[in-house]
Design a protein that fits this description.
By secondary structure, this protein is an alpha+beta fold. It has helices at about 50-55, 95-110, 115-130; strands at about 5-15, 20-30, 35-40, 45-50, 60-65, 65-70, 75-85, 85-95. The termini are far apart.
């Protein structure tokens, strides 16, 4: 059984032409890289970005680096990708993204407690190893 979560969506590639072109897009989440979402665009182009960027972009405009995501009305989502040779703007229905995130949340909620606490204990160990600084009131 594959632990990878995939969701297929159709986007409208926004251009300066009269009609947007509809293109297939695949969303992918691999628990081995829990903070990242991958988007496969037409032509086999893969873009990766932070899961939290997608979550924030569903509610309000969010940008990190060369990727911007924002809601467009109640039912649409815009994904803007900047590259050396230009900008690509895709408009999606929000429903596939909401399903995708719901699947991720359901899967990560079912992780064993030891897997969830490993990251916390690693962070605690790193914090314990950092030199302590004292402050005076």
């Amino acid at each position: 059984m594959s632990l990878v979560i995939q969701e297929h969506a159709r986007a409208r590639l926004i251009t300066d032409g009269p009609d947007p072109r509809r293109v297939p897009v695949e969303l992918r989440y691999d628990p081995e890289d829990p903070d990242t979402v991958q988007v496969r665009l037409p032509g086999g182009v893969d873009r990766s970005f932070a899961l939290d960027l997608l979550e924030r972009g569903l509610r309000s405009p969010a940008t990190r680096g060369d990727i911007g995501i924002w809601p467009c009305g109640r039912a649409q989502l815009v994904l803007e990708l900047h590259a050396k040779d230009g900008v690509a703007v895709f408009q999606f229905d929000r429903a596939p993204f909401i399903r995708f995130l719901s699947q991720i949340r359901a899967r990560t909620a079912k992780r064993p407690a030891t897997a969830r606490t490993t990251r916390t204990s690693e962070a605690t160990t790193a914090a314990d190893a950092a030199p302590a600084t004292a402050t005076r009131a």
